[in-house]
Amino acid sequence: MVSFKINGVRRSFDGDPNMPILWYVRDELGLAGTKFGCGRALCGACTVHLNGSAVRACVTPIAAANEGEITTIEGLDPAGEHPVQRAWRQHNVPQCGYCQSGQIMQAAALLATTPKPSDTQISNAMQGNICRCGTYQRILAAVKTAASEV
Amino acid sequence: MATIRNMSRRQFIASSGATTALVLGAQLAPNPVLAALKGNPAAILNHFVKIDLDGTVTLTCSRSEMGQGVRTGMPMILADELEADWNRIQVWQAPGDPEKYDPAGKDAQNTDGSRSTRHSFQVMRELGAAARDILERAAAEQWGVDRSAVYADRHRLYRRDTGDSVDFGDVVETAADMDLNPGPDAPAPRLKQPSEWRYIGKDMPVIDNRDMSTGRAVYGADVDLPNLKIAVIARPPVYRGRLRRFDASEALKLDGVDSVVEVPALATDTPAQFRALGGVAVIGSNTWSVTRGRDLLDIDWDDGPFVTHESANYDQALVEAARKGGKRMRDRGSVDDAFEAADNVVEAEYFVPYFTHTPMEPPVATVDATSTPVRIWAPTQAPNETRQYVAEALGIDMADVECHITLLGGGFGRKSKPDFACEAALLSREVGAPVRVQWTREDEIQNGYYHAASAQHVKAALDKDGKVTAWHHCMAAPTLFALWNPGQRDSSNLEVGMGLVDLPYTRIPNIRIETGQTDTMIRVGWYRSVNNIQHAFAINSFVNELAVAAGRDPLEFMLELIGDDDELDLAADGVEEFWNYGDTVEEWPVSPKRLANALRAVAERSDYGEKLPPGQGIGLACHRSFHSYVATAVRVAVAEDGTFTVPRVDVAIDCGRYVNPEGIRKQIEGACVYGNSIARNGKITTRRGAVEQSNFHDYSVSRMSDAPLDVRVHVVDDFIHLRPCGVGEPGVPPYAPALANALYAATRKRIRSLPITAEQLSA
Q1: What is this structure's pTM?
Q2: Of A37, A44, B49, B743, which one has the fewest beta carbons inside 10 Å?
Q3: Interface mutation vs chain B, best among A18, A95, A138, most B CBs within 10 Å
């Protein structure tokens, strides 16, 4: 039995504790905002927060969340108005949009610890998040805008 | 149900049905079919414009959204002619049904070939205008005035005489109850002048921005159904391999695994097309369990004939086929004589490997084949081909298959091929429940459709003044038509028509373009920009080599070769059936002038010619594809160790009439990153017939650190009065050669093979 809070709600799971958080939130909870991209922590599409840090949900077992706190894109801000989300819309970042939940969660975790990141710090932090539509230029701009607001 | 006919080719209907909405739009189905649907809310699905009593306008998007912005662009056109307020519209995604949702009648809703806007622009205008016309008539009837006394403006209808106005919603009931048939001789509804456009040509953010930034946007794997089963499939590692035997006993011990079933292999003599090729499916209640279960399968495959497909040998065979040539596709002047008389002959070979699409969302489809109609939910670029191939797989009529289109997490051509939906359909029928087939990244990379590897041999004759007197270009690549005709060894008109046979150098008096022959040993399929990628790479690289050989500046040299003719007459050079992206050359000619114009524009905007510090360089390339003209200027900064960055890219695009310039900028920014991956990142290779790469660690794509982050897009307006051209793909082909030319300028190292490696720059 694994117990944790997810998006502020206390839950427990008595299934396979090795199930990755990705498949727990998608298949068991129906929280579909977290995306599957590679299954090997290579693309960042599945990024969520575990105790405030960005983790790749596709390789992080639910057991790792025991007595901890998970935040998914659905829980980042109840109204969808986190500064990063607002900046994403302001810069019209998404193309297909599929990787953007992970990008936003990664950027939000960066700004939580590094409120005024340099371009290099942004690039280093976002390095693990692939966007095949190629929105990196706008992601960089949006993170900088969000940084000016948090 | 009132019916109006006001155009020769199309009909428009207004219907209240049992709903409180007015529905307007195009339909091509015979009226009795629609009449039978009267009173059924489903009847409203036939139409492109729906207006509720509260005035909310629902606009239909019948093209697939994969990031190119079509769910924003098509509604912009409708809303503009409708005079709708953008803040009061919503977009409804049409399912696959070409009779209802392909009003242009050109491509059966296939969203590929960069053609949505160019094929649908005019008909979307007409549909929006027709809807506005009906609202104006309804308001006139409501007020008891002549129709000419009423006009629509931003979601309201005005009386010219009194200035009174009502909201669109206020005339819905009147419109629904009236006979709106203006008669067969009524004039077509007036279309706005371009100067009156409110949305067309203006920047518009993506309609799905909020959903995409909050995790609420629905993609292929986000469709949930009662009793849904999830499946992953072990597929043969070698193309057209077959199952010998399997043992699933370990997999079946896992909690969450319900069953393991064989997906039958396609008969050996049946072409692959978009069909499911077979494998072993692990089916259960969650993705984690079935993925682990698949790892536990013990399978013995018969690799079949393509086990001999080895990149090391195959690539060399391509190079030799390109040297040999054989089939003349274009012949201008007398190439042989020109080489006889040449003062200088320059010769080079270029190679571009296999690539695969890697959309961030791997293929996935959910199918419920337990009842009729069979229902598909899929991120598909081709909803009606999806219906067709699923119907074939199940042995049923296509009319009994529905296809609902989710958002696509990227497409790039992969999701034109619905093999993954066929798998889900077969499994749903087998297990008697709706089934989602989830492809993993490994599946996507190892069992995909691959961009054709290619070799090109190019030779030019120069006279004593450095003028190019002949260009002889031979290309060899496996053909994507092998999907239908596995024995085909020649490239098609479609493939050479993508930027090769239409070589734009009008001032070269002698040109010969040939293709060599090769076997196709894997699924070769179209990939964003298709064969334009390798053609643009070779042509733009080689012309740069010629400029160097002639001691000329590449910009001047290219402009001189292109010339400024309005049209290129390929028929005069013996080109038979120039493909031209499926369109006529009368409507979409090849224009050297527009290409030169784009090249001049990018040279000016990129400050081409300014002196750069050592280790830096700027490279140019230009290319026509999908009727658009794109010129790219890439700047590189190369370090001592051969590593390099791309500090700035300028792109000029002439795409004729356009809808959303913000959308163009985004597509070009993204195309440069896509091109950057082609130029610098992964390649697909095979060994003993199997793809050697498996995930992003060994098939790399551009990340933020190596992507261009300062892409400046310059939309060239000079030919905006012409027809709309493509935008999604044309930005990709010029990027890699512009980068290679920039690297040459910086280092004097010539790149002739992609992807670019550190060895090439340090050699």
Answers
A1: 0.95
A2: B743
A3: A95
